[in-house]
Each structure stands twice: as C-alpha cells, then as structure tokens.
Specification:
It contains eight helices and four strands. Strand 3, helix 6 and strand 4 form a beta-alpha-beta unit. The mean pLDDT is 94. 32% of the residues are buried. The protein has 191 residues and is α/β, with parallel strands linked by helices. Helices cover 54% and strands 13% of the residues. The chain folds into two domains: 119 residues, 3-Layer(aba) Sandwich (Rossmann fold); 65 residues. The longest helix has 27 residues.
C-alpha cells in the first residue's frame, strides 16, 4: 500500500480531492497517512478501515492459489455473488463488464493486489485526525465490506457523511451509477 500511495502522490497535484472504492479506499487511507495536508476532501466507497482478519487472509490466499493453477476466470465467477447485489447476478451486461475488468487486471496483478490488501494496517487509529469533508458511501447489500464497517468508519471520522445506496452490493458505482454519481457530485461541490 505504501508504494501504491506514493505512486498516486507522485502524479497528483499539490492539493486534490481523493475518492477510493474498495482497494482504492485502502490506498486512500495510506495517502492520508503519508500526506494528509494534500487532500482537500475524501470519499471512501465500499471499503473498510480495518486490517484483514486471519480468515480473510486465508480466503485471499485460496483465491491466489486458484488463479495460480490456471483458474483465474473461475476466481471472478466465485467472487461475483460477493461483489454485486443478488438481483444483479442475472444482469449479463454488468457481470460481463466485471469479468472483463478482471481479465484486464490479469492473474499477476491480482496476486499483487491481494498481497497488498492482506498486508495493509488497521487505519482506524488515524481516523480522528481526518479534518476534511469526508463522504463514506456503500451499497446496502455490500457483502464484502458490509454497512456495519462503514458505520464504524463514520463513527470514528469527525463530521463525515454516511450515505447508503439501496439495492446495491460492493460495486455501487457500477450497480447504481446515477445514485453514486449524484452523491459524489454533491461531495465535490459542498463537502
């Protein structure tokens, strides 16, 4: 996470608005550790502040192993019920977009991502220092990072706004793009 955050900071302007979804939220937490003075406003979407539990690390390790033995496409199929709302599993256009995104990432980058996620620190101790307009957004049916984890972040980050998008799983920006865009637009304009 440290090197990913550094790459973003090296390319970003001196001051910027920062939004991160899922793993992007973990990178955002690391950016807030490294250079909080550069971030004007923060949006954390379908993510968490906690480090992975041993059980989560074990599950990620199984997915890495599965992809190593040539079943990378099977990893995405296995993750779909966790990534999107159950009513969207029959949405062929959405599921195909998710699968194509995973294929573009590929197994090697997937391994690196999972290892970075497994090694991330618990970010909750730094939340009380976040002194900027913050939006915490999640899908009501996010099975990967449930609403309770977002409520926990909202309780720890002073003055933040918690927004929950109905009928959406972990990929809220893809499942309910109009609702997510409206909330992000409001955050950008007003905080």
């Amino acid at each position: 996470m440290q090197s990913l955050a550094k790459q973003v900071l090296d390319q970003a302007p001196d001051r910027f608005a920062l939004a991160g979804l899922s793993m992007g939220g973990y990178v955002a937490h690391e950016i807030m550790r490294q250079a909080p003075e550069r971030v004007e406003r923060l949006a954390l979407l379908d993510t968490a502040g906690r480090a992975d539990t041993d059980e989560q690390k074990e599950r990620r390790g199984q997915l890495i192993e599965m992809s190593r033995i040539g079943k990378f496409r099977g990893v995405t199929d296995r993750l779909l019920p966790i990534l999107i709302h159950e009513d969207r599993l029959s949405d062929d256009a959405l599921t195909e977009r998710v699968k194509l995104m995973a294929e573009r990432v590929g197994p090697e980058a997937f391994h690196r991502q999972q290892k970075a996620i497994m090694s991330r620190p618990d970010s909750r101790p730094q939340f009380s220092d976040y002194d900027l307009p913050t939006l915490i957004l999640c899908g009501r049916q996010d099975a990967l990072t449930p609403v309770a984890l977002h409520e926990e972040m909202a309780d720890l980050i002073p003055g933040c706004r918690l927004a929950i998008i109905e009928d959406s799983g972990h990929l809220s920006t893809m499942e309910q793009p109009q609702a997510a865009t409206a909330l992000l637009r409001q955050w950008l304009l007003y905080g």
